[in-house]
């Protein structure tokens, strides 16, 4: 192998070898290695390599990948900054604003999330993802009216969008519209019965209707899939109390307190 290398490269002096090793890294090689590191879920390595690549060439794909790698490193603010740069480079690319909204959501910066969605809607007001994300942004700032409008529009655009039905059902329950909430959760259960959030929503609707036996059935199904949720255990405890099951209520409350104590020890 060494012979072949020498054959194609020729003889090199020590000085030439040092110069060759000191050459500027190839952009395409760095880009390839950075993307591979990201795909292999090594975000820290990906950040280092992709930053080197960007020092050589300002490339849209590399910067977008860098933003994702920064998210993987939990550097959300830096990831958002990279996306802002991309928005300046390609202001007509709706995918940039979708990603900006997603990162802002992880940051719990619902104002920035809403602004990203508004810019995205200027490009395509009927984009399903943008409308759902805008609804989430509205929920984040307790704007129930606009959140409801965005969720309803999302469902009109895609009548099979399970997440939109789920979110709208939760919102309608919060707004006191039990019939509307139940219609949405029934749709979810009929189309995706294993979705645990829908089971919890159904339990809460039945509880709000004072249908405690039905509520208990759905609380049981949810807790079977999420046994470590102390808040829901307390909710089920109250339902059991209403049904006269004092021991069951006490057991749920005890388990909830134990789970909370374990979480505090971990922290």
Your description of this structure?
The structure is a single chain. With 267 residues, this protein is mainly alpha-helical. The protein is built from 16 helices and no strands. Among the domains are: 67 residues, Serine Threonine Protein Phosphatase 5, Tetratricopeptide repeat; 66 residues, Serine Threonine Protein Phosphatase 5, Tetratricopeptide repeat (Alpha Horseshoe), CATH 1.25.40.10. It is globular and about 70 Å long. The termini are far apart.
CATH fold topology of the domain at 24-90:
Serine Threonine Protein Phosphatase 5, Tetratricopeptide repeat
**Residues in helices, as a percent range:** over 70%
What is the CATH superfamily classification of the domain at 24-90? Answer: Tetratricopeptide repeat domain
Give, in order, the helices and strands.
HHHHHHHHHHHHHHHH
Largest sheet: none
The CATH architecture designation of the domain at 24-90 is: Alpha Horseshoe
Count of DSSP-assigned helices: 16
